[in-house]
């Protein structure tokens, strides 16, 4: 090795050591890495100005299918707390972020690893896991956010976790939780009253991501547009679906902003069943600006789609 | 040997700086761990009990309401039953990090049909040392099995994770592609890998064959680094604490005496024959785009085991032996785009890499005969490729790749040795069909002009199937 290269290497190591020293300097706020918009919104509700929230995905992105982008790695490295759904929703990208980040705080089993689905009872837990059934989740359906009672459970668990990570502000988080819970329980009552006419409504969701909403509001899931979870419908399958829906009518076909509108519109035109885009998460529609308006708008859109009886 | 010492010292220094964070006294840590676990257990049970209580209350409420009319009562009973059912759903077993399986096991099945217009057994790359194995890299004619890959990965304990990947070749030979542990608790953006792992130099080098966008790796990757250059040693990786992604890393290890051959010919000396360094920078561009640029180097030497080389033009059957240093320098660039950053329906990926390789040492020409002569020998050569893959429908992708090598310069006092005046290149087009995230069927056509005077038109049909735990892919 030439003297020049030796100098270069030494400098590089010195720079690395210096950067490590900077990295240890304390943050004012708890850095939260929220995998999905609903958890970013919830972290802001509970954490207020004591947390700094980075939202990893938008409502226009399918949380199953995210690239482990460099920017996500950089933000995982900076996080004090991961707030994600878990139950394998993020299995295609979150493990890469965790492994590459070099961040010990957010590894499995650490306080900084918070998976919302660990705190709710999950629906559709399969008895057997076989990929012939598509991309099934052995831990049950991970799309837990559309039952507001789940949000309440996660809010409570998240508050405890924030208090554990940031003892100094435990009382602050508790106070914000209390405030949030008050508003939330009141809102749930309002939604349940307004959504009463939706009871028994027959839904055809694009993906198996409405189970908790359907369960909460007592609706029915007729069939999904996808033949199996994660597999887009072929033209042949859509024709089959058309026949099925003519024999077994439904009230509404729903999809998320990130799901292909073409199949849904095609079906809707031929079956005369209205197609509705639901927000699914915060930001999924212009109206769904926060957790409260997410449910307001979801119910609004379903009510509008309901045929007058 | 001096440079190796510098590297060891450097790694030791950085490790020492980082370790205190992770290695407190074991007893304290154990206690903390137990406390943490108890706390978690408590939390998770509390929340479950709350969930059950809430559901019970709902069921009770609806039961109370149900007293008015028989019809209503029936309905509420159904509701109560439903609530009871969901409340009775099996509670979450464990926190799911990667898979329901521990360790996460996956098997990749690959194979297909190859058609060559020229017998691949005689294929070579004109002007590049060494390239006798190019034919092997292309694969046999007709139906064949490609790599069958088995991966097991899991957390070892709160401080390490481990991964093991073995590949069974179509002919039954087994290779340990990767078998490494990686630290998870060092913090400060640092992680250390130990064992055998695909080196993080370049871009394509660390990508397993089932995740390649084409059936075969680029020519420059094959000739300079083998399919994947695996380091057997240690890697230190560091992510900078900045919103801009900056990654720096270095590796030391046994390497392989010549990466292009992909053989462990045996350095057989104490010390470290190989080290690498790499730097990556990346970020998002707008809502749909993201990029990563990188620079890497690999420095290795032949030690006591000179590399046997076929003759430069590979026609005379003469064997030469090279002994000295092999140095590689590379630049890589990756750009990915999807509308709104949602790659499900449509997405685009562009990759380009450039590599420069230098041999500096002595060549024993015609080593097998009494006429053998040792001469100083230097070769400076390069190669690059650019490829784009576009998913135009949810299950369909098309891709184009152009790759070429530059014969560069060869300087030696030996009479009659010069780089042939030829630039090997290939062009490929591929179409793949992905019925789900777990299966892929690919058609690739390629014109291969790696060997002077030979135009090989190739057609590959390939299948890639993944079984077991859901894999997570790097950017």
The averaged pLDDT of chain A comes out at 91
Amino-to-carboxy terminus distance of chain B: 36 Å
Tell me the number of structural domains of chain A.
2
Q: Which pair has the most extensive contact?
A: A-B, 86 and 93 residues
Which CATH class of the largest domain in chain B applies here?
A: Mainly Beta
Spatial shape of chain A: globular
What profile does the largest beta sheet of chain B have? 16 strands, antiparallel, barrel
Write the layout of secondary structure elements.
The complex is a heterodimer of chains A (309) and B (475).
Chain A lengths: L2 H21 L6 E5 L2 H11 L3 E5 L14 H9 L2 E4 L9 H8 L11 E3 L32 H18 L4 H25 L7 E4 L5 H7 L2 E2 L13 H13 L4 E4 L5 H11 L3 E3 L13 H15 L4
Parallel strand pairs in A: 1-2, 1-3, 3-4, 5-6, 5-7, 7-8
Helix pairs in contact in A: 2-5, 3-4, 5-6, 6-10, 8-9
Chain B lengths: L1 H21 L3 H40 L4 H18 L16 E13 L17 H5 L3 E4 L2 E8 L4 E9 L5 E10 L6 E9 L20 H7 L4 E10 L5 E9 L20 E12 L3 E13 L5 E4 L8 E19 L9 E19 L7 E21 L2 E17 L12 E12 L2 E11 L6 E13 L7
Antiparallel strand pairs in B: 1-2, 1-3, 1-18, 3-4, 4-5, 5-6, 6-7, 7-8, 8-9, 9-10, 10-12, 11-12, 12-13, 13-14, 14-15, 15-16, 16-17, 17-18
Helix pairs in contact in B: 2-3
